[in-house]
């Protein structure tokens, strides 16, 4: 059955309206993305659009960002620090209970790997489960004990009374090392460890790394020409976060 003239023009008008709407959204998405120095992924761009009065579905935001080349890539490999049982492994005291009533009750840590054309580097942060603040971190070219030592020194310098705090991690060799365990003990900190190979036991840290990589790493690898360039971006992001 042939389409009536009125229906034909109605359909054309609908297409024009959708194109206009998408153009407006793309312009605003680009503004948000630029304003926040490329740190915002789909979820945070979507939330900011809502805050600015746009009525839009998150799937549309994802589709538009992908078409604009603003969608992040997925990681090719992940750093695994588990190398078998070195010392006495601590109990999983946190046991997926990430709730707190105040800062300095529960901290968590992990190491994440970043790959570039000039090599690899590793980020080791400490996150407070109450504030989601990164209280200390160290970025290094090698994931060694010196990196963990520098990270702890920064945290202990910032907070002098940590007695009773629970410090959670996976079963990485760094956290099984006598130095790490003794350093916590000397400050009255209670050590907690995830079960081997269970990322959900430390999902707070996984969430932080996932957001960071989506917002300043995936799709931006070629923009960091050196370790120092990436270090500046990490510092800006953590201060912003």
From TrEMBL:
This is Integrase catalytic domain-containing protein. Residues 99-241 form the Integrase catalytic domain. GO terms for molecular function: nucleic acid binding. One of its GO terms (biological process) is DNA integration. Signal peptide: none annotated.
